[in-house]
Amino acid sequence: MLMRLGIFMLICLGFMLLAGCDKEPEVGEVVSTFDNYLETGDLPAMKERGFIRLLAPRFDEPSGLPRDGIPASEYQHQAEAFVEYLGLEPRWVYADNFSELGTLINQGVADIIITNYSVTKARKKTLAFSTPVNAVQERLVVPRALADLALTEMGSLIVSVPDGSAYQETATKLAKRHQSISVEVLDSSISDEALVNGVANGEFAASIVDSNMLDVLLDEDGEAVAGPVLNRKRRIAWAVRPSSTELLNQINQYITSERIITSDGSAEARDWEAIGERGVLRVITSNNPASYFMWRGELMGFDYDLIKDFAKQHRLRVRVVVRDSPSAMFSALEAGEGDVIAASMTITSDRQLAGWAFSKRYLEVNEQLIGEAGDVPLGSVQALAGRTVAVNPETAYYDTLKDLQATGLQFDIQEVFQASTEMLIEGVANGEYDLTMADSHLAAMESTYRDDIAVLFQFEPAKEIAWVTREPQKILRKQLNNYIKRNYRGLFYNVTYNRYFVEKKTIAAHEAYRVEPGRNISPYDDLVREKSLEYGLDWRLITSQMYQESRFNPNARSFAGAQGLLQVMPRTGRQFGYSNLTDPENGVSAGLAYIDWLEQRFPARLDLAEKLYFTLAAYNAGHGHVEDARRLAQRLGKNPDKWFGHVEEAMLLLSKPQYAQQARYGYVRGREPVKYVREIKTRYLGYVSALGEQKQPEL
């Protein structure tokens, strides 16, 4: 097993110091970025120290792209806001083992548990729970062969559940009521995703999972399906020590006053007053690289960031509702499934006639014709004659082209249903399509990733992009317009716009660090050698990855906020106990800890080389997207355990809507991890050759 203890800052429960402990903790490995302490006092003791410590499992992230609900990160932000409301500073403590959260709280390692933590009878014996922040159903998960059967019709059934979980409590009650049911208790660290996958591949006969998790974990055509509801209202809450009565009282007051309690998600046509009462703004959007997507576990997108800032200014949380086309988004809005559409919607007369009530514009764009790099620019729109333009007929581009044809201009429109702008641009770049159309901001975004396309013509005048509401939502529309008036082209707006549409997404290439026998291959060879040895990794491979990530610049920062030599996200660094990631030692240590964590997420049966390729791809795009690609590869008849020629080809497909819509983690710019793995391997082999050394045998 790869060594991990040398890299983490451990909290030794028997001592008052965090770092430098030579005794492993009694309960589980916990980590923080500050000098932690043992404290079991109530709120006055916390005020004396100036901190409240928030406890969560490491990488407490959704097992998929949130498509209908409030992202877990919103609750973490609310917890931080609560601590700041009390005039104190929030400090995060992370634990490896979910089942040990209660023990850690009672031993004084942290003060409040903040995660998807169910209220159970067993936990209530040792913890005090807040007012519930959510209520979920627990459902049986069974093989597809048992779909639609009542529990009494399923015959003998073994239900596998994690030790110490709320699922175990439900399964135990179920077994007492039904003689045909027995319970298998699994390791407490097993995740909801592993439970669903276990049922799908036949490892488990059945299991139990929260309904909100099943929304993202169940594949439409997968072998695991949702069975009967076993618990209709399992409460989710924050938890503290029983002695923290003053703290609990403040938490309950805050949860009530700040409306943290989750709405039930039922359809309701609401205007501003009802939205304020619920404390939740339901945002309808689309999973694409401009509006809303997941990258390295972070939820991102220009439209998402902008509407989230609007919600924040009004002390609202964002509930995301994902739909796949403009017509599906508007249907959801009309049905009351959401309050506003935030998905780069162009204002058109046809949409206004159809009942779309637009806000003021928050973006002005020009439609552009996109061709291959090197193609001759069109001097006028008349030069379009005889060409073919590929577009999705549901977009405003199609209307523009039809209007042009109506003037008598002779050219062809190639209708590509369900195609995204990125997919069509990719098709132009590889010669599949002659031309396509894109809004200028989307064309600019693609140009931050690639240099094989060109803008051949720009249409005038500029068109306006706005948020969409129902006509009766006059007050909401007024609030949206006020926000746009205050913030359009202001500091936050400009920084966010540049982040997605201007800044290059890859470090600019420059003359490579020349490698010669007897010369270092980077300025950080000694540091990388030392740190890589702790994990049993080839330091030359890590150096190749470091060049790919930062070009050996410790001060490098990505468009998404990743920092340092190995471009670690600050939140990721914190979960391994590291801050100040631009410090070379911190940046390398955090990156290697994350590489090790990712490597352990893949099955032990994998060939070591394949495991490394998957780990590199996961480092670039996120573990969830790689698992999506492995599942897709298997469905396509390819080998899910091989990267080159198999999973990498499936990864490329996940940028296409028809595949991204069915993937747990949604859209990913698949060409990036494919390029990333290939270039790191090639450079690594170049290092080995130049140094006259042997490569790692499996590579």
Automatic annotation (TrEMBL):
Pfam families: SBP_bac_3, SLT
Subcellular location: Cell outer membrane
SMART domains: PBPb (SM00062)
Example of a GO cellular component annotation carried by this entry: cell outer membrane
Positions of the Solute-binding protein family 3/N-terminal domain: 69-264, 280-504
Annotated membrane topology: Peripheral membrane protein
Superkingdom as given in the UniProt entry: Bacteria
Keyword terms of this UniProt record: Cell outer membrane, Membrane, Signal
Similarity comment: family membership: Belongs to the bacterial solute-binding protein 3 family.
Protein name in UniProt: Periplasmic binding domain/transglycosylase SLTdomain fusion protein
Species of origin: Alcanivorax borkumensis (strain ATCC 700651 / DSM 11573 / NCIMB 13689 / SK2)
